[in-house]
Here is the input.
Amino acid sequence: MILSKNIFDNINFNGGNISCDGGSILLLSFLKKYNLLSSLNSIPFSDTRRMPKYSNSDITSQIILRNLLGYFNQADQLALIDDPLLSQCFDACSQPTLSRFFDRVDIKTNMAIKEYIQKLGCEYVNKHAGNIILDVDSTKTETHGHQEASAYIFHYGVNGYHPMMINEYNTKLLLSSNFRTGSAYSSNGFINELKEVLAHLDRKDKPISMRGDSAFYNAEFMDYMHHEGIQYYIRAKNYEKIQNMIIDQLEDKGINYLNYTNNCPYYGEIEYSLQNLSTPCRYIYKIFPAEDKQLTMFPVIYCIITNDMNRSCKEICDFYEERGNSENFTKELKDDFNGSNVGHHDFEKNCFQFMISSLCYNIYHLFRLTILEGKDLQMRMNSFRCKYQKIAVKVVRHARKISLSFSSAYRYKTEFLRYYQKLQI
Here is the structure.
């Protein structure tokens, strides 16, 4: 119950050196401890400036930090300049300097950042993942107006670009982030992306699995993965011939699919070979009646093609369906790291913006896997910002020392101090 209508006689914004991003010291300490921004010095830019005050790597570092902290607009550069805590970490450039910086971005810049994203993800996977599961999918990045290389994507019904992502399921890390034009088909460039990922992975004694939707139902892809020793699980396209073969098999065995349900479907396997596929494969399916039997007489048929010869039909279907969780990884990239917004006319500038979002995604998840504990290991970036970053802190300068005074009422101070101490060891 509110005790009085007029509790506060006056409000102002003269509180002094108080930052609302006190928890940013966790991410800043992580970046410094593992020296994650040093590789930016080798990224090439098309730069003709003489004696610049801010190097391209310095400005890139500022953009990465802003993105990690949830400041996505160029106007938010003032947060690095005016904030009493963040201003101690960077000699931040002005917003006009930042705008001119994008004119120095070219295709070589984006290729270098893309390789760094792959390197970060694959190095962690090589050390900590025993069973590597690659989930590949495409997504959309909407555009507005006349932006270079944008096109109408019929699958989504919007104008935009069509990136392709490869995530490692166990760690959630991005192993490849390919920013493509809007006219690109869902699986365009998949083999090249997979080759780049495999070049970074330590494949000795480590099984690799790949899961993809029906866009990757391609004999060339499957033959390549089979020869590379990769087990693939791909959603087969609903060809009428395959559906008829399944129905005929059920009739021959005297199996009535109406006796099964979505929660308890019938699993089976048919003998079929995809045209031009030269390596052995299996067609696994599950079937159950449609939810509304009055509107449709046809069952739901879910078919997967795989070169896994050992697992049962149910195990293969269950394993493939876990791929649905990886779509949340892409959603986090777009929602929590601004990967869904590109604000430039030039394609390469938009690509750079998307690559920065992808790099920040990997940096956070490396931080999560390395520092966070318990239930916090499942935390998305936006949840981390609410719980650990957005903390009011008073910045006190005295005798050449800087002290941070947090509120004594902060609920998670025990966990915060434990994480901070881990970063100081």
Summary: Residues 347-371 form the longest helix (25 residues).
